[in-house]
Amino acid sequence: MAADASAFRTVQPLEYYLKFLEQGVRPDGRALLRPRKATATGGVVSSADGSCTIKLGQTVVIAGVHCEPSVPTQAEPDRGRIIVSLEVSAVASVAASAGQRGSTERQNRELGPLLELLQRVASDELLDLQTLCIVEGRAVWSCHCDLYVLEHDGNLTDAALLAMTRALRDVRLPRVELAKPAADAAALAATGGEGGGGAAGGEQPEGLVVREERAVPLALSRPVFPLSFGLLSDHLLLVRRLPARPTPSHSRATQPNGGREGQI
User: Fold this and answer.
1) Alpha-carbon distance 19 to 25, whole Å?
2) Which of 31, 58, 165, 238 has the fewest CB atoms within 10 Å, i.e. the most exposed one?
3) What is the Cα–Cα distance from 18 to 25, expressed in whole angstroms?
4) In the structure, what pLDDT confidence band is assigned to residue 225 with cuts at 50, 70 and 90?
5) CATH number of the domain encompassing residue 73
6) pLDDT band for position 201 (50/70/90)?
């Protein structure tokens, strides 16, 4: 019986899902508008300034944030940077493990727009980049947010957005001060000769003293609650996984909603 259902889903994916949608349920028994269970664990990467693992259903994403002082650009002397990267394990998805080449290629095509979405949300909606300014024109924080997909069983957009948001919220930045010119050498010697870490493009801010205490959290502009939904033959459902084959009868969208604490 299970083999017959699996074969039916492979050969006729749209008809397979419609059989369940007509009854108002998904193949796993959940209601159409019932999301998958989500769990978050912070501080999972000891070497990172902030980190988190998100498990959304069977999809697992780990995010780590590394921050370093860098020289700002001339165009934006008072704005820091957030650089987001995304990598999917070669054996993370059902398609990869089953050898479904078409589905794997489709997944790879979706990573580009997802990375653009993550970068836009991080830079434009989640954080005011001016709060990453250390000394205008001299030094700003560059935050590298690296996301790694351990398991991909659908809803990757929501899982990645949640992991990125939670990891950034976990960040505690060290206090950084601008040393006075006469005390630069002594201050740098007292901190082991470090000027605050490398910067983008190989440039390093000069005259910075990085204190060891990490007591300054990132000031997130607002919380972000991602919600993916889809339309499949006039049925509205929170997206888990749509049919593997693209068809004109289904569409998908993700809306990152922001609001005050505790509101959507």
Assistant:
1) 9
2) 31
3) 10
4) confident
5) 3.30.230.70
6) very low
